Amino acid sequence: MFRIVVLLASLLFADAARAITADGRPHGNFFKPPGVPRIEADPNQGPVVSRNGTQLPPYNTTFFFDQLIDHNNPSLGTFKQRFWHTWEFYEPGGPIILMTPGEINANGYADGYLSNRTINGQIAQQQNGSAIVLEHRFYGLSNPIDNLKSESLKLHTLQQAIDDLEYFAKNVVLPQPNGDQVTPDKAPWVLVGGSYSGALTSWTMVNKPGLFAAGYASSGVVEAILDFWQYFEPEREHMPQNCSADVQAVIAHIDQVFSGKNTTAIQAIKENFGLGDMTHLDDVAGALRNNLWDWQSLQPTSGPKTTFYAFCDALEVKNGVSAPAKGWGLDHALQAWGNFWTQGGYLKRRKRYFILSTSPLINSSISKVCGDTSAEECLGSYDPTQAYYTDTSIDNNNRSWFWIVCNFVGYLQEGAPAGHPSLVTRLVQPAYDLRQCQFMFPDAFPEPPKVDIRGTNTKYKGWDVRIKNIFFANGMRDPWRDATISAEGLNVASTPEQPIHVGDGFHCSDLSTASSLVDPTILAVQKAALQSMATWLAAWKPTAAGNGGRQPAPGPAGSIPQGRPAAAPVKPLSAWNKGAGTA
Ligand SMILES: *[C@@H]1O[C@H](CO)[C@@H](O)[C@H](O)[C@H]1NC(C)=O
Ligand SMILES: *[C@@H]1O[C@H](CO)[C@@H](O)[C@H](O)[C@H]1NC(C)=O
Ligand SMILES: *[C@@H]1O[C@H](CO)[C@@H](O)[C@H](O)[C@H]1NC(C)=O
Ligand SMILES: *[C@@H]1O[C@H](CO)[C@@H](O)[C@H](O)[C@H]1NC(C)=O
Ligand SMILES: *[C@@H]1O[C@H](CO)[C@@H](O)[C@H](O)[C@H]1NC(C)=O
Ligand SMILES: *[C@@H]1O[C@H](CO)[C@@H](O)[C@H](O)[C@H]1NC(C)=O
Ligand SMILES: *[C@@H]1O[C@H](CO)[C@@H](O)[C@H](O)[C@H]1NC(C)=O
Ligand SMILES: *[C@@H]1O[C@H](CO)[C@@H](O)[C@H](O)[C@H]1NC(C)=O
């Protein structure tokens, strides 16, 4: 008993060291990584059975693949890359559906992304295919090197990730009948991804023509953008208009006061939100982005009880009356937003005896930003000695993703340019985040990084992608839409070779079967995709590009045969409490 308590305490401590916010971000001014939503297992899921009635291993059975550490130097050998697989729907000749959930520990993704609770399983079911979930290098327990130091992360590039997909497809021996006879020269492979991995789907098909027979990119953020202030645009347009108007009014006011010299007025605003002790005004104003970031958690299946809508209700519903489209105006909105943070429990859940008070804003269904740390510790971004900047242990997806952000893609979520309406403070600009690249990777960035946006968009084509057999699925309300091929004003034509379909969904909504049951526009996207897959796969012929031939795996002698379940490598303590909750 005593030992269990000690173990739990150390687990909590390990995670707290690099995650300060309640939702696991390093601090409360750190954006949410894009991310594929986790789809939970069917609560009534029985044993998985193949088409001929044979019972198969459960979806969550972990397999290991010997992946090259460095595709530029195969002599460095291999590491264990985790994957999950099922041949529930497979018939000889069927395709192999491959997806990586991208920038996250992939444990817990198999139940949804191998089954027909997602588009992956729907494609597999329609086409008699088998399905794979592959953990991306440097996330979870799939690490070429067992730490996340800058030196090791030199192997964490978009190209290495693309090369991983190719090497995996050409060399894996799948744990299914004829599992050594389904490489891309012999069977069609379909690459599926969402968000970053949706972009990776497009980038891979640009970079490795002919390797994949077809692709499905959901909310694929194909274009790298440094100052991605447009992140908040779909939200500004689709949130309740009164709430949008009032948020803009409050933010414009705060920016004006914070840019002036009236310290009394400045302090009053800080205290309004319970942030009176904080040091940096950009951290204070930037922290209010959290209410807008909550939009990213919405799905068509979310229902009305979400933290985002609790926030708009708090601002817009006064004595049971809802504000008109222009909102209640600055004075009420500023005070109501402040109350939501303090008495309302958004900053920190109030202690029990406050819940018994009469305030209508106290509502336990909203999530909170900070745990038990001070506001400065939770929301401040200026202390380079914080463990979330210095801890280089593995299975820390925020760190691994930030490396990609600082080097290759940007997507920094800042205030809109002057003159354009803004839901978030203009005090936060790219320099604010690039400073943190230096805090997290001081060896790599003695100067603020020059993120190689242009290199990424040149090499992998970004919005200029024009290839065959890739299906782009996007959502009108997706905050990431303006980095996808369905960005506002871009107007890339949808063609039979490269269809582009937009539903009313949010981020990656069309990956989920449940979303299509509540939203007919998403059902239409999925039906169109299934139709394209049927056409493309029917026309598939073995290609030279898929026929790279097996590359000899230079793994150390005696390594575990590929595709067999193997004893899990020793899991670091901090990894055991991951994978709970939804992304
Ligand atoms: C980092 O970000 C993800 C969102 O992708 C979050 O769910 C996770 O818990 C975070 N923290 C850690 C320590 O992994
Ligand atoms: C795997 O899924 C089964 C149900 O199919 C469940 O009982 C088991 O706990 C899961 N194992 C892990 C490691 O999540
Ligand atoms: C998913 O597969 C199960 C079992 O084959 C089937 O009963 C169910 O109808 C399928 N769901 C969809 C949405 O196709
Ligand atoms: C899937 O397999 C079934 C049964 O063998 C067959 O009738 C059907 O044509 C196959 N579908 C495709 C798309 O190959
Ligand atoms: C049917 O089940 C048997 C027994 O597990 C297996 O060996 C065989 O490969 C299966 N065939 C197909 C087409 O799934
Ligand atoms: C400073 O702000 C306070 C509080 O808003 C206000 O009462 C005061 O008049 C302002 N002082 C000046 C010099 O504008
Ligand atoms: C709590 O918030 C939810 C979601 O906004 C709302 O439906 C519910 O009525 C609230 N409960 C109370 C007691 O205010
Ligand atoms: C005003 O805000 C409320 C609460 O979020 C919302 O239900 C309502 O639709 C909004 N009305 C308008 C006109 O924006």
Automatic annotation (TrEMBL):
The keyword Protease applies. Keywords: Glycoprotein, Hydrolase, Protease, Signal. SUPFAM superfamilies: alpha/beta-Hydrolases (SSF53474). GO terms for biological process: proteolysis. InterPro entries: AB_hydrolase_fold, Peptidase_S28. It holds the Pfam family Peptidase_S28. Residues 544-583 are annotated as: Disordered. Residues 1-19 form the signal peptide. One of its GO terms (molecular function) is serine-type exopeptidase activity. Belongs to the peptidase S28 family. This is Uncharacterized protein. It comes from Leucocoprinus birnbaumii.
